[in-house]
Amino acid sequence: MTQRYENYIGLKIAQPMPRVLEVIFDRPGKLNALTEDMHRELAGIWREIDADPDISCVLVRGANDSYSAGGDLSLVHEMTQSFDARAKVWRETKDLVYNVINCSKPIVSAINGPAVGAGLAVALLADISIAAKTARIIDGHTRLGVAAGDHAAMIWPLLCGMAKAKYYLLLCEQISGEEAERIGLVSMCTDDNKLYDTALEVCAKLANGAPSAIRWTKYALNNWLRTAGPAFDTSLALEILGMTGPDVVEGVQSLREKRSPVFDPNAEV
User: Which helix (H) or strand (E) holds 30?
Assistant: First the structure.
């Protein structure tokens, strides 16, 4: 593996086979929730991969029987208190989504356990998404008290249709890997103990395929996502705006206290 990934401190980087790179969320005991460093690195690594002549495919996964529980609550709390923190996360999230879309190398995601927030954005924006049957996919934003802003408005309606997208995003309902495959939210579903091997098989096929044909097909298909850019930009701006309001304060507090949130139904919006 080239030395260009040596300075990554939040994400774990590995190379399981020639020309295939693994990007791994690895925070034991924290369900691989993203720290500030992990979020920053996840936004920028796709440009590094795009420029790496030794890599033809990327596998994104979580360690420790989890994919990722989304952003760490301490990072969310900081955003409610600081304009600078909100501006930083807005910029990183925007870069994360567009860098994944514009990365020429095909991306495969292996989804197991809880998959929430920024990690879920990469999982569903990946070119091929593979979920374990018992994976627990949930967008999480409206439960937190902010708009579903980091990818959902762009790709959920395209993957599973507007009716399903609104149901799961507005109600913040959990989706199993099997149900996600049934409604078209992920590419395929597999037994939990076969997830990693299945994902690696797909990566091997992509890495050994015709590079220009695969990359140019991805580029053309991702124009569907680029046309949804204005919807994504709006949703992300509204998510960041929500970080200044009362709903997110109650959302964070209720999650820390492991209780149902009590939002003010008369809040002005």
Answer: none
